[in-house]
Every structure is written in structure tokens, then in C-alpha cells.
Design goal:
The protein is α/β, with parallel strands linked by helices. The protein has 5 helices and 14 strands. Strands 1, 2, 3, 4, 5, 6, 7, 9, 11 and 12 form a 10-stranded mixed β-sheet that branches. Strands 8-10 form a two-stranded parallel sheet. A two-stranded antiparallel sheet has the order 13-14. It is globular, with a radius of gyration of 19 Å. The protein starts with a strand and ends with a helix.
Length: about 290
């Protein structure tokens, strides 16, 4: 999986088995998951055509699942909990339908799941959404236009994804933490400059940490002059053992450790990925080889 943003759209690329409650949803294999912000006053006549237009602009065929929202994707909260990554955009108003807002959730696993587990992931995410809204004393459990996508990659490792399973626990915790943060950003006076990234850390006790480059206590963690535009890599976990390795987790199982990888910290590579956000990891590695010659 890798993800990137343009001004109004989040693109998540990979080789997914996915389930979606959104436009033209269902369960199938897709290459891309999309969350797109529509303009104010946008007509709802043909939402699928809107998504197809956005996908075509990125050279993506029709093998995608997509969601639409009036919330800016630049207010997206991204939460990474081991092999689970959750993307949330949220805006709610205490008004009657159809003006109550939209909450979109995309939950991705780098470990494969059976179709039933994908459906359970949607259930867990929706339940956690309602739980988070109630904890904020909001008199609703969601909005009429909410949607969820659950996607996974790789060989099947999970038959189930209920809230007490490894996957369900991670999805639930990510939504419980991420939804209030997403609403906070939506309700702020001004637009967010960039999406917010949170990682579940076990350093000095389990907790969520928001990574912000200007407050990073480890800079420079690799070499003088390094770039940190992509400190939390959009390719994570890439599984390329030339760049990282699988290590034992303190909670059992394995997690991807790429602490020694400097690929996206190299200024030329970072500049290229910012200019061409759709560039693949293989393309960046080839560029790195050229620069070393």
C-alpha cells in the first residue's frame, strides 16, 4: 500500500481485496481506494461519474472504490497501528438530514483477510464511530451519508476481525482516537495545511503520538541535511528486505522495522516524490541508483 494526496483527493494504491459501503460498493479486488472532496454546491446527480473522472485523471481504470465528502481531505487524520492504517475525514452538524455532514473511514490492513473479516471490519469501524460520537456528547451515531471501506493486501492471515481480534482491536482504537481529532480539525477556524499523522507507540507505555516535523526530538535521525517530508513513509510497510526487516512485536506477531532506511530522507528523492506523488517505490529506487553513479 502507498497513499498520496492532491489538493482535493486522497489516493490509496495497492493490490487490495476490499469491501465498500460507498458508491458502487460491494466486495471485489481493486487497485485504488479514493476519498474525494467535492466543491461547495456540487450536484449529486451522478457521483460515480465524478469519481471516474477523478480516477481517469490519475490514469486509474475503473477498478477502484471511492467515497465523496464535503470535508477537505487536507483535514484527514491518518492513524497507523502496526499493520493497520486508518484514514478518517469527518464533519458533523447537529442538524436534520441531509445537512448533518459526512464521516468517511478507510481501514487498510497489510495482512490479508477473508471477505467475512472485511465485513466485520466495517462493523467494528461503524461501532467505534458511534461510540466516539457518544463520548463527545454528540446526539447522533453517524450521519446519513457516512461510508466505510475496508481493504487488505497479502496472503490471508485473518479469518475474523471482530473487536476482540488483533485486527478489530486496532481498527477500533484507531477510530476512537482518530474521529475526535478529525472533527477537531474540521471545526478549527482555518483549513489544515496538511493531513495529520498519528502512530500507536509502545515507547514508555502504549499511547498515540501525533508526529509533527517541527517538534521532532530526533532530528536529524539519519544524516545532516536529511529531508523529513515523508518521515512516516507512504510505502509503509513495503516489505522490501533491502530497506527494512520484519521483527518480533512486543505484543506478539511481527511488525515492519525500517528505521535504517534513508530512501525518502534523501533530498533528491523527496523532491521527486513531492513533484510526482504517484511515483512507485521501484521508480524511486531506480532514481537513487542513478544519483549514486
Amino acid at each position: 500500500m502507498r497513499y498520496y494526496f492532491d489538493t482535493n483527493t486522497l489516493f490509496i494504491r495497492g493490490a487490495f481485496r476490499a469491501a465498500s459501503t460507498g458508491i458502487k460498493g460491494g466486495i471485489r479486488s481493486v487497485s485504488t481506494l479514493i476519498n474525494h472532496t467535492v466543491a461547495s454546491g456540487w450536484s449529486h446527480e451522478d457521483p460515480q461519474k465524478e469519481l471516474e473522472f477523478i480516477a481517469a485523471g490519475e490514469g486509474i481504470d475503473r477498478d477502484f472504490f471511492g467515497l465523496l465528502t464535503a470535508v477537505s481531505v487536507q483535514q484527514c487524520c491518518i492513524l497507523q497501528y502496526d499493520y493497520v492504517t486508518v484514514f478518517i475525514t469527518a464533519g458533523v452538524r447537529c442538524e436534520p438530514p441531509p445537512n448533518a455532514g459526512t464521516i468517511n473511514i478507510i481501514a487498510c490492513s497489510s495482512e490479508g483477510m477473508e471477505d467475512a473479516a472485511l465485513l466485520e471490519t466495517i462493523m467494528v469501524a461503524s461501532e467505534a464511530k458511534a461510540e466516539a460520537l457518544q463520548a463527545m456528547d454528540l446526539p447522533l451515531t453517524g450521519t446519513p451519508t457516512d461510508a466505510v471501506i475496508a481493504g487488505c493486501e497479502g496472503s490471508i492471515k485473518h479469518r475474523y476481525a471482530g473487536r476482540l481480534t488483533d485486527t478489530g482491536l486496532r481498527v477500533r482504537e484507531a477510530v476512537l482516537h482518530g474521529l475526535p481529532e478529525a472533527l477537531k480539525r474540521h471545526d478549527a477556524a482555518g483549513p489544515s495545511d496538511a493531513p495529520s499523522f498519528f502512530i500507536f507507540s509502545r515507547f514508555k507505555g502504549e499511547h498515540w503520538v501525533e508526529w509533527m516535523p517541527h517538534d521532532c526530538p530526533y532530528f536529524p535521525c539519519h544524516f545532516p541535511g536529511q529531508r523529513c517530508d515523508f518521515c512516516y513513509c507512504p510505502f509503509y510497510p513495503c516489505g522490501d528486505e533491502n530497506l527494512g526487516q520484519w521483527v518480533e512485536s512486543s505484543k506478539g506477531g511481527k511488525v515492519w522495522n525500517c528505521a535504517r532506511c534513508t530512501l525518502l530522507h534523501e533530498p533528491g528523492i523527496a523532491d521527486h516524490l513531492k513533484k510526482f506523488p504517484g511515483a512507485s517505490r521501484e521508480e524511486l529506487l531506480r532514481l537513487q541508483d542513478v544519483k549514486k553513479r
